[in-house]
Amino acid sequence: DGSELSEIENYVRVNKARPSDLFGAAKGKNVILISLESTQSFVIDNRVYGQEITPFLNDFIRESYYFDNFYHQTGQGKTSDAEFLIDNSLYPLGRGAVFFTHAGNEYRALPEILNEKGYFTAALHANNKSFWNRDIMYETLGYQRFYHMDDYEVTEENSVGWGLKDIPFFEQSIGHLKSMPQPFYAKLITLTNHHPFELDESDRLIEPYQSASKTLNQYFLTVRYEDEALKVFIEKLKEEGLYDNSVIIMYGDHYGISPNHNEAMGEYLGKEITPFENAQLQRVPLIIHIPGHKGKVISTVGGQIDLKPTILHLLGIETDDDIGFGQDLFSPERREFAVFRDGSVVTKDYLWTAGTCYDKESGEETEERYCAPFRERGAEELKYSDRIIYGDLLRFYAKDEKD
Ligand code: GP9
Ligand code: MN
Questions:
Q1: What share of the chain is helix, strand, coil (3-state, %, to 5)?
Q2: Which atom of ligand 1 is nearest to the CA of 127?
Q3: I need a labelling partner for 315 at 20 to 30 A (CA). Which of 21, 68, 162, 321 fits?
Q4: What is the CA(39)–ligand 2 centre distance, in A?
Q5: pTM of the model
Q6: Ligand 1, residues 132, 147, 258: which to mutate, most atoms within 8 A of Cβ?
Q7: Nearest CA owner, ligand 1 atom 9
């Protein structure tokens, strides 16, 4: 039966944060969600030999809500874990990719909810449709249409590394967006800024960084290219009249530079990459652009788990009955909290990682007791979320709803 769910339901209910006064601020608008491959926050407003790495985004965040303490929470399922977090406000699994292992579960995902509210729902990604089991999982999550490799013109000339380059991807995606009934919820997944960060010479827009890590050197070049692709996309959205009636949300899916490159990274950032700094490097950009709203930097600690209620509230949709672990990032009563899939926990003042409690302000080690309550809370949430997935518990919830 579903009795196992009631304990979790209680936890979730107590954990709810009421919406902010932005509730309904984007009501009825299209939602354009963009997954920025391997994009970490340290590139934002940063430079390589004086050259901006993300000149377009640096401007765009000044007319958007920009969250600078937003963490990825992915595990082995990488991009697909980020997608799972955002659509469900559930954590991905500690091992394997939930897109593969639990694609047959019952969920109550964002596309399904929005579809019921009259939205057309689509995912756009120019890779093979079965990569990460997306073709199966997208149906489970309620995507009505998946524009995949076969829906794009992919040639040798317009591809690099993993496939279609981001600029032609966005250019061709405009045609798909134009053909959709509105309002739509469309998720676009970029690809060029993917390890090993290959790029054609002709797409190089800045002079390369020189360090012993070829990976880091290349990374700056592909991030710069991705930034250019976003600029092209936003210009096209404006030309097509889609910009003013859409809320645009961009997020980094997970890290691109692993701790194997700590030495070069430390050189670049001008500090030693301690476990504390490594955890802080798990910040990924979150940018929310709402037409007519002024730019604002929001430094509240949050993570990908928080996007589902944030998006629903912006669209004026209540989440009281939703089973999920996130909180609206705009809520005045939200807790400042993010748990990583490895159990590391970040709050406003403390960071727990690699068995050590750190004071956030100084980055110095501090007494474990300061971190203990958050660490326990993080462990509890991961456990509850795992239980939902392993037990397919939302099928009981779905049944309740229909009774
Ligand atoms: C593949 C793309 C990249 O389709 O999403 O996957 P990743 O390796 O980052 O999970
Ligand atoms: Mn990825």
A1: 40, 15, 45
A2: 4
A3: 68
A4: 9
A5: 0.98
A6: 132
A7: 79
* Token pair in block for residue 283: 């910040």
The pocket of ion ligand 2, defined by CB under 5 A, consists of 37, 78-79, 253
**pLDDT tens per residue across span 42-53:** 999 999 999 999
Bond from prior residue into 183 cis (ω within 30 degrees of 0)? yes
190 flagged as catalytic:
no
Tokens 């984007």 belong to: 26
Instruction: Name the residue of 40, 78, 251 whose CB sits within 8 Å of the most ligand 1 atoms, as the mutation to test its pocket.
Output: 78
Per-residue pLDDT of 340-356, as tens digits, reads 999 999 999 999 999 99
Quick one: which of 282, 280, 285 has its CA closest to 359? 280
What's the rounded Cα separation, in Å, for the pair 72 and 292? 28
Q: Which tokens sit at 328?
A: 């609206």
CA atoms within 13 A on the CB side of 28: 1
Cα(242)–Cα(240) distance, rounded to whole angstroms? Answer: 5
Q: Which tens digit of pLDDT belongs to each residue from 157-212?
A: 999 999 999 999 999 999 999 999 999 999 999 999 999 999 999 999 999 999 99
